[in-house]
């Protein structure tokens, strides 16, 4: 049976360019890259070029650790013109041995002061000298897990998300050019383990549970995905799960069979630099 991933990327090409079944994974991933380069994220209320004007003229937008995209959660305009600090994470995709599309994930070191022991995507805060979000994401991936930036083909960025501490996180999708050339070398100060998971898992209702929470009078959903590989169990939740749900929806061109967010969650009254989500 042809996988959904293979159907997706081969049908994105005209018949004259579709690879035969015996072709290597590089051609299939090339087709996926061509598809993703056409993706345009929704306009953001925090776009740098007109950020101050947008905040003055209309309501700002914010998301939370549950993984809501920025455009889905309007808030009243911030009197302090709050601008979240910027970060980027790398959604590094490659084709597994069974032909499925997989994403590289990490388990954070238990010694870290925040989010210790949690599953996350490689990435971190923007630093001076980073040319763009792709540069930030690949630089951080090299520092955290030893992934050479030259092995990653950046193809698109998704709409920003906001973390628990109101850090603006830009998901960057990249394709691993040669999975055999990548030898994980986790930085023990930051990363306890490196593993991969099937991307399609995040738009399936298997191994998933949900919790409803409330902040500032607004209810929202947190998704949890339980995953086991090589006799190790991982829980993927919160912001990371939200980003991967959105990425999988875009790659496979279909929504998940579950509600991404609580329909009643639509207004946060105020936010400033001191706001922290529960």
Automatic annotation (TrEMBL):
Region: Disordered; residue ranges are 112-140
Specify the Nudix hydrolase domain's residue ranges.
84-240
Compositional bias of type Low complexity: which residue ranges?
Answer: 112-124
Q: Which PANTHER family match?
A: NUDIX HYDROLASE, PEROXISOMAL COENZYME A DIPHOSPHATASE NUDT7
* Record keywords: Hydrolase, Magnesium, Manganese, Metal-binding
Top-level taxon of the source organism: Eukaryota
Q: What's an example of a GO molecular-function annotation for this chain? A: coenzyme A diphosphatase activity
Q: Which CDD domains match?
A: NUDIX_CoAse_Nudt7
Write down the SUPFAM superfamilies for this protein, in alphabetical order.
Nudix
- A GO BP annotation: acyl-CoA metabolic process
Q: What is this protein called?
A: Nudix hydrolase domain-containing protein
Where are its TM segments located? Answer: none
What is the organism of origin for this protein?
Rubus argutus
Q: Which GO terms describe its cellular component?
A: cytoplasm
Q: Which Pfam families match?
A: NUDIX
Q: Which InterPro entries match?
A: CoAse, NUDIX_hydrolase-like_dom_sf, NUDIX_hydrolase_dom
Which cofactor does the UniProt annotation name? Mg(2+); Mn(2+)
């Amino acid at each position: 049976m042809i996988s959904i991933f293979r159907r997706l990327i081969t049908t994105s090409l005209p018949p004259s360019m579709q690879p035969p079944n015996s072709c290597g994974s590089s051609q299939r991933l090339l087709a996926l890259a061509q598809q993703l380069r056409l993706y345009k994220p929704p306009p953001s209320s925090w776009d740098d070029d007109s950020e101050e004007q947008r905040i003055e003229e209309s309501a700002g937008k914010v998301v939370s650790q549950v993984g809501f995209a920025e455009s889905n959660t309007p808030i009243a305009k911030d009197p302090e013109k709050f601008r979240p600090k910027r970060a980027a994470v790398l959604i590094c995709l490659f084709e597994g041995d069974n032909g499925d599309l997989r994403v590289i994930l990490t388990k954070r070191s238990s010694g870290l002061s925040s989010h210790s022991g949690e599953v996350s995507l490689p990435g971190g805060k923007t630093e001076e000298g980073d040319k763009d979000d792709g540069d930030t994401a690949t630089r951080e991936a090299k520092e955290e897990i030893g992934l050479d930036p030259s092995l990653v083909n950046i193809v698109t960025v998704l709409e920003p998300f906001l973390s628990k501490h109101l850090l603006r996180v830009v998901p960057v999708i990249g394709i691993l050019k040669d999975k055999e050339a990548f030898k994980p070398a986790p930085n023990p100060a930051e990363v306890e383990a490196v593993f991969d998971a099937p991307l399609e898992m995040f738009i399936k209702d298997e191994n998933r549970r949900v919790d409803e929470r409330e902040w500032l009078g607004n209810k929202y959903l947190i998704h949890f995905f339980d995953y086991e590989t090589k006799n190790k169990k991982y829980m993927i939740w919160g912001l990371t799960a939200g980003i991967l749900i959105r990425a999988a929806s875009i790659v496979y061109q279909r929504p998940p069979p579950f509600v991404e967010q609580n329909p009643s969650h639509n207004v946060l009254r105020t936010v400033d630099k001191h706001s922290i989500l529960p």
